[in-house]
Amino acid sequence: MELFEAFVLTVITAATPLLLAATGELVTERAGVLNLGVEGMMLVGAVSAFAVAVTTGSPILGILAAMVAGVSMAAIFAFFALFLVTNQVATGLALTLFGLGVSGMLGASFVGEPGVKLAAIHLPGLSELPLVGRILFGQDPLVYGSLIILLGVSFLLKRSHVGLVVRAVGDNHHSAHALGYNVLMIRVAAVLFGGLCAGLGGAYLSLVYTPQWTEGMTAGRGWIAVALVVFSSWIPGRLLIGAYLFGAVTLLQFHLQAVGVPVPSQFLSALPYAATVIVLVVISRNRRLLRTHTPAMLGSTFVPDK
Amino acid sequence: MRLELVKRGTEATFLVFASPFIAIAITVFVGAIFFAAIGVDPGRGVYVFFIEPISAWWSIEQLLAKATPLILIGAGLSLCFLSNNWNIGAEGQFIAGALAGSILPVVFYQFEGPLVLPLMLVMGFAGGAFYGLVPAALKTRFGASEILTSLMLVYIAQLFLDWMVRGPWRDPASFGFPKTRTFNDAAVVPTVGPFDIHAGLLVALVVSFILFVFLKRTLKGFEVRISGTAPRAATFAGVSNRNMVMFVFAISGGLAGLAGVIEVAGVAKKLQPVISPGYGFAAIIVAFLGRLNPLGVVFAALLLALTYLGGEAAQLELNITDKVTRVIQGVVLFAILACDTFILHRVRLIRRGK
After folding, report:
1. What ipTM score was computed for the predicted complex, to two decimals?
2. How much is the pLDDT for A306?
3. Left if phi > 0, otherwise alpha if psi is -120 to 50, otherwise beta: which for B350?
4. Fold of the domain built from segment(s) A2-293
């Protein structure tokens, strides 16, 4: 039973950064924008969170810094991809490269420094419940945050006017424009929200997952988050399943190593990446599913005509 | 009052040629601001990063050595991007090629002679092409996004290389250092001519010229271009999209693999856990800066090679981390993409109340 508790707890830690970043990307993509800069936004978020938390001693300020950093990075993307209508795939790549560089520079003096860990919330009584106590009631604020954001996004997209407008912009920007909606501004908002979430995902890595700064510490999680959005076929609920599934795969390597499975560590480390490829293949085989759910304007540019 | 983009009917011819230079100017300008922001005298920063590395002959040699893989990969990626295929896993194909090309000098090291190097190059190309065909096949067969699969394969290749040089291929005489045996002389890319030019550079120049002629003068080259600009027309003209995807991935993967084997057989002369400072990603920028033209790629590769030398110089002389290279590379890509916008659009000023 303790083993089960430990496993679930670690799966939650591994899944949360993916869930945060993927939720943001889902909203961005639902508005018709493909931002492949998630990896870069997460990295800059991670380093900002770490730097501010270490300097001020407050992980909460670190989280705020990561949000600001993620939004700033997303603003760069929005400026180029939305205002200057540059190619979204290439712009996202540029953002990731830029983020790798910027985070490396910002973090250079923080490598090897001990970090500040974001403490878990402790509810007297509830957290001590057997089996589910720590799993349900002993998590840190970012874990609860990730679930609240997902629920909020799920509800707003499906049930609210705002969500309807976002989806309209993503499915047919000409019609949305003709109906009088400001396509550009709605997309900017969606992109910035994506940056905010990616920044939070980064913060989780450097404040909870491994409370330290190492260069390129996201190790492809930003890309896996983008893949998760495809996996979810743009439906928030499925994102939750996907993120926790991948959290489990990420952890498989540690658990297999712990029990001494005679496989080289590099092969185990490659598991999440191989799993991503396999998942993409399996999900893409069902072309009808993707055709129904993919935002029709995904990745296309929009210049309003008169 | 606000600014608005308006589509031009045609491309602005002047800007088509000027845009790479404008992009470079923007990059230098942003670089200066960036240096000022981190407390480095901008004039000195720009000089150390962009000028000093090309002010001595030995550093020009370095520049050419770094440009070689970038030309090869960038020229191949031009084909991909022209046909609207997003191969962003060149870094992985580079590693696959380096591994495949190293089979001879690492496993069959007793085998020497004039055939070794040509065979290595062929195997390197084949290795990269094979690895490039994986995302292509997953795209044509299952519709999986080549962007994500090709990138995931980069991580897998890096881990596989790491395992090989620490495990099966580790040099028994290396005292536990993770590296393979050093290649013997028959397996090393030579330098040629009076200026000791790395032979790999000549290969790269020949390849980019061939690809230039291929795109401009052959039917298949025309098909590559039309697949990107008018995919529906291409289909009606009988161009198989499936074959096109496989073709451009095989060529670009193969050239990345060729770059990989030339790099390990010409520079390090052995395999190590890390064999590339991100050439596969920098080459994406090279392809765009070269305006997806294999000859333009040659010049773009020189600029991106300069960012690597500039980063090293900045680390030594300005005492800032060489990560500045990645920042500047990102800025180059942003700048060239922005330039593309103004080739296709005009800016119009709209006064208030309208």
Report:
1. 0.91
2. 53
3. beta
4. ABC transporter involved in vitamin B12 uptake, BtuC (1.10.3470)
